[in-house]
Amino acid sequence: MKNTHVDLTKPGLQGVRVLLGVTGSIAAYKAAEWVRALIKEEAIVTVMMTSAGQRFVSPLTFSALSGNRVYHDMFEEDQEGVMAHINLSRDNDVVLVAPATAQTMTRLSRGMANDLVSTTVLAAQKPVIVCPAMNTNMFTHPATQENIKKLEDYGYHVVAPDSGSLACGEVGDGRLPDWDVAREKLLQVLCPDDLTGQNIVITAGPTREAIDPARYLTNRSSGKMGYALARAAVRRGAKVTLISGPVTLSEPPGVQVVKVQSAQEMEAEVLSHAAEASVVIKAAAVADYRPLVEQHHKIKKKADTFSLELVKNNDILARLGRERNGRQLLVGFAAESKNHQQEGLRKLTEKNVDLIVVNDILGKKTGFDVETNQVTLIDRTDICQLPLLSKEGTANQILNKVLELLSAR
Ligand code: PMT
Questions:
Q1: Are 141 and 274 contained in the same domain?
Q2: Do 154 and 299 fall into the same domain?
Q3: Which is the closest atom of ligand 1 to the Cα of 228?
Q4: Domain closes at, from 131, 158, 190
Q5: How many angstroms separate the Cα of 22 from the Cα of each of 3, 117, 127, 355?
Q6: Domain match, 297 and 388 both
Q7: With a cut of 50, which residues of the chain have pLDDT below it?
Q8: In the chain, how many domains are there?
Q9: Which residue range(s) make up the domain with 243?
Q10: Whether residue 280 has its Cβ less than 6 Å from ligand 1
Q11: How many CB atoms lie within 10 A of CB 47?
């Protein structure tokens, strides 16, 4: 079940209300770290615990970290005198049970309601994410595996545990996964899956145009805008192929990443993957020129001045525009330092694309290698100025426009 009440223009989990259920596993101490991470992203966290969970970490720890009251007694009432298990799920966007013990998963799979966590999950009309953590033999036992299958049949999202050394000294499946795995699942579950069925090719990052074995021409693109688009699109259900120049970013989970160096390599990969794509989004900063001759040996320093003859690279986006099939939606970017709208409109028509995303590369918080962007979306009938947003927030707005254009066809 997807929760679509979350503001996609906000970065990450900002403003998301998370109800965290902590049960009786030694991994409960890691749940405290997860609360810190959530609060750091300005999420709103309410913790509920089983009695076994309180044996590992005290409610005081979670109330100090979350800044909210911790619930553990299913008969306690909240301020309005309503039983906690009714309002707790109503007042939150998502329920995250982590760590989830074998015992709690048995309760959840049988619809039991004999403690606050199981009762609240049973009453919840919100997405439920379950993160099992236990001894390997317990996790691989058929009973536990059957419970997991049942939970998935109910529509709960079960996050596979990590494999490695466990607190009990054994090695194998059963470790609570790293926070970024759970974070990605939260974002995926909270996003609408309105891009399911779409096959989207995205380009990102700079290209490198070799001068000699030691030198190349490149630009300031970090890849952040393209990677944000890939993360946002896969969370919303799309099949995503990310064709990336050399960047230092980690690969977005669930995305097929194709690494390239030069504009010519990027062109070859784009043309081969674009054929099957329903949408192509070209966020990469592709070099317009490359050295006419790539020197086999390192050029030795001699005269005081040095000239380099350059030759034009193909304009990949313009080529897609020339060779486009009717079905495909083409989205280009425009990195401008002046005449932004005029240049955006020119590129929209000259390259024969459906949408141009114009961004100012002189702004301190826009364009190259920053976490935010402020773009203008120009399509054939509309010009839309977006506010300054995180690149993930900008990415979701671009994808909303893509959906609008797809549905208008
Ligand atoms: O990666 P970041 O650090 O997050 O920075 C983001 C960004 C500024 C790189 C990004 O938002 C952006 O503007 N990308 C496009 C950069 C660019 O090459 O703009 P352009 O106006 O020069 O090119 C216009 C369009 O043609 C772009 O979609 C580009 O991918 C495409 N192009 C350009 C040249 C070329 N030879 N082939 C192309 O396909």
A1: no
A2: no
A3: 4
A4: 190
A5: 22, 8, 17, 46
A6: yes
A7: 1, 3
A8: 2
A9: 199-407
A10: no
A11: 26
d(CA 57, CA 78): 23
Q: Is 225 in the pocket of ligand 1 (CB under 6 A)?
A: yes
- Catalytic residue at 168? yes
Q: How far is the CA of 379 from the centre of ligand 1 (A)?
A: 17
Tokens of 365: 């918080």
3-state secondary structure (DSSP) of residue 240: strand
Nearest-atom number in ligand 1 for the CA of 316 is 39
> Which H or E run includes 212?
strand 209-212
| CATH number for the domain that contains residue 305 | 3.40.50.10300
**Torsion 399-402-408-409 (CA) sign:** negative
Q: Which atom of ligand 1 is nearest to the CA of 391?
A: 4
Residue 210: closest CA among 253, 265, 133: 265
> Does the C-beta of 57 come closer than 6 Å to ligand 1?
no
389's enclosing H/E stretch is strand 389-390
- Model-wide pTM > 0.85: yes
DSSP 276-325: T-SEEEE-SB--SEEESS--SSPPPP-SS-----EEEPP-HHHHHHHS--
Whether 102 is in the pocket of ligand 1, judged by its Cβ within 6 Å, is: no
Distance between Cα 284 and ligand 1 center (Å): 5
Give the C-alpha separation, 23 to 104, whole Å: 7
* CB-CB contact of 336 with 327 (8 Å): no
Of 168, 190, 212, the last residue of a domain is 190
